[in-house]
């Protein structure tokens, strides 16, 4: 294991040195982003400063490069210690550990309406249900007469697990919960998987836009609980350039586990958004998202990436129905305020909890102030109210506060 890592380090160093030698020959730019965030909850908190240096380069003939990395030093506070956190005392701040990540870093080649990218790049599927975040691999985009074509092939095993959030199987969850440190660096990486995607985007006149996408995910983790999956998605946008618009989509997932058992699941999305008449720049939206659950011992809808569906509520899309109403306003060019209410429902029964399908509601508000192009302040706060449901109806509300400062140099 050691020798491949040594050779990989040497190749990265050689490639970086060759790139730096060519920088004076072509236009390039560089900078530094400094972010600080503080999140506070009833029993935990985290303070996370992040430095992100970046460099961009363009030879003026279709070849370009963008590279960035993130250096963070998070500190966590716990009144009690959940599974996977090494106890260092009777509650309190944990010792900070330096986390280094390769952020968006890719080379690009543009020619004749096509784009080829290689490296670590952002990707999200058409509905935002299956996969989102940074991925390592290749992506090809082409603008054709009848629409746009995208073909991608990516690998997840070199990503930082806390950023990738790949939690498809119990084995993934166990690995994710293990704290990593420099003496156990293998715990740093996300679960190993191959992801491929083929997408078609087309404008159907001035009022309709259609996206069709097929994805396939292959589990290379080596766990006893392997899971391979394929996704098919269709998304339709009506009046996408008008003051009001409707978005609707369906997703179908087929899965196979290590025993050869196969099954299916599905998801759905509907969103109605409109500008609010008046003198302010504001808008409102109503969104419904659904991912099927494990009915009759079947597979639940299982995305590759598992972000939380709420700001406070931690649940992923598997077996969840989310109804959200949000409003945003920009009273001044430098000020943006948003407010959203989400309600969460479970779509499947649980033994011993007959008739309990309602998790509760969440209210979240945020304010961002950007007086200068390179300075941004943000504040967010809200709470999840389990008393509005019947699953955790006797539990107290759970609050959360976030504060952020971003500087660009």
Provide the descriptors you would attach to this structure in a database record.
single chain, 409 residues, mainly beta, 18-stranded antiparallel beta barrel, 55% strand
Distance between the termini: 39 Å
Q: Which term fits the overall shape?
A: globular
Secondary-structure element order, N to C: HEEEEEEEEEEHHEEEEEEEEEEE
Number of strands: 21
* Mean pLDDT score: 86
User: Strand percentage, roughly?
Assistant: over 45%
**Sheet of most strands:** 18 strands, antiparallel, barrel
Percent of residues in helices comes to under 10%
Quaternary organization: single chain
**Derived structural class:** mainly beta
Report low-confidence residues grouped into runs of 5 or more: 1-13, 81-90
Over the alpha carbons, how many angstroms does the gyration radius reach? Answer: 23 Å
Number of DSSP helical runs: 3
